[in-house]
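Record pair follows.
FIRST:
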Amino acid sequence: MKAILDGIRVLDLTRVLAGPWCTQNLADLGADVIKVEKPGDGDDTRSWGPPFLKHRDGSETRDAAYFLSANRNKRSIAVDIASSEGQQVIRDLARVSDVVAENFKVGQLRKYGLDYESLKAINPRLVYCSITGFGQTGPWSHRAGYDFIIQGIGGLMSVTGEADDRPGGGPQKAGVAVVDLFTGMYATQAILAALFHRERTGEGQYIDSALLDVQVAMMANMNTNYLVSGQPPKRWGNAHPNLVPYQAFKASDMWIILAVGNDDQFRRFCEVGNCLDLTRDPRFVHVPDRIRNRDQLVPILAEIIAQRTGEQWINGLEAAGVPCGPINNLAQVFENPQVKARGMRQSIEREDSGPIELVTNPIRFSETPTTLRRPPPRLGEHTVEVMRDVLGYAPDSIERLLK
């Protein structure tokens, strides 16, 4: 079966995470993604280790695990875009591509003649996506954008971390670069929509994608909580501003999550916990009551939950239909029977290293499944292949460019 984006070619001028995450999504869907990297160094994240991928003999390759996470199913070519010859290679690739994705600073590619207007002139059907920290317009458009900084500027860290009045309270970034990842996902969505538009109209277009825009948008209900009330939300740690109990609790041997979403679930929790008297206490009967009186309810629940093991609670609550679960580390995640059953761990051979363990794309199509076709490439691994097979360069021209 052909992949859903079979026949689509993506010229990938991105590096680090937001852009590569976007283009990896497109590659997983079947697009031919040609990743352009700086000769000698390549994508910054190739050196963001340890850990590094190992050769078959146990020595380290030049590729960090970070790079492997965002670059499967791609081909790598090493091109110096600061040179006139390199710029011509990029223009030739843009001529035969459907999508260009880039995350250079605003205006940087214009001086090389590789901006949207320049490439649109040679390929009017091109979908061109620029990913930057702050977007192409506005007083901060010239600034470099980093996930950590955007989490602070865009409000995420104002609601992430333990409450200020509790031990360890204060702002906390997310454990993974969620702004980069969300931006990569939004950019993927935008590119797919633009390709759909092109199918209907024949027109390409430009996409301006900014980390700050995405960070503000992804605040979701926290945004509307503020816009409706006029009060900025605060940090709640593992608690929830609109539901109680909806947080982590310590059982006798482990931490578990209790996620009670309505009054009926609270009643069923109390049945399992032998504390039905709480359902008759006017302070705790309904969701708004429990929110107003969380400081009285949570200590009571903490004492009750601490009396049993995590497994006892999870088994009992699951049987009663009360949402709950353990807090796993990644070793436990990949041993989880559901994760195993869904095939979320995949292995693929790379010539220099042997098997590489990667994570499966989570999208499940019935007719056009995603596939793991290529391991994350070595730097410049496909330079000659792309020049020969995609661009049709003659052998002497390729040799000259390599030199």
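SECOND:
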Amino acid sequence: MNASVTQDMSIFYLISSASLPVQLVMVLLLLTSFMSWWFIFRKMFAIRQATKQSDEFEDMFWKGPDLNKLYQNAGNTRNSKGSMERIFEAGFREFIKNKRQAGIDISTVMDGTRRAMRATYQREMDGLESHLSFLATVGSVSPYVGLFGTVWGIMNSFRGLSNVTQATIAHVAPGIAEALIATAMGLFAAIPAVIAYNRYAHDVDRLATRFESFMEELSNVLQRQTA
């Protein structure tokens, strides 16, 4: 008797014996969890690489080499460029192009340089922020999806009591247990997504601040060169 009850209340048995809507909810949450973990690891490596590349380029920039040489080196590293290096390349390219034109004052040259850097900055930030909205959605929606499966399972459990003359806990326990698994899976999908979103959003904000500071510093350096 005890072995039968233990077998009937095992996790795999409860999932396999759940109603079709509850099983669909579980499958959806499982797939969502796998996708969120995939994006979590991808975003972790992407942010680490962006931070490392920014550190290396910023160190090269402040060592004081000739900006023309630094620009030429940036053009030779097409596959391993970081976000800050691409911002520098876009701004310096526009600076050289505008400076070569006759009759353009320094304010126009610098405005064009800032616009070029800002456009590249926006593209880089779009890449760094990609998939963060998915993690936020998973973190906010998954508990409710799991709760839907739980409510549906509990409804089926109590509806089944209409065919029973004497209701006991043994009649409703399996249905409630399988329903609560949906809630647990919803939390399993949501909690890592929320933690990852908060961490990565903070890291992306820090990189954005670094890029904006670098653009201002580069603008000041270029403006001093034209003075």
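COMMENT: Residues 10-226 form one domain.
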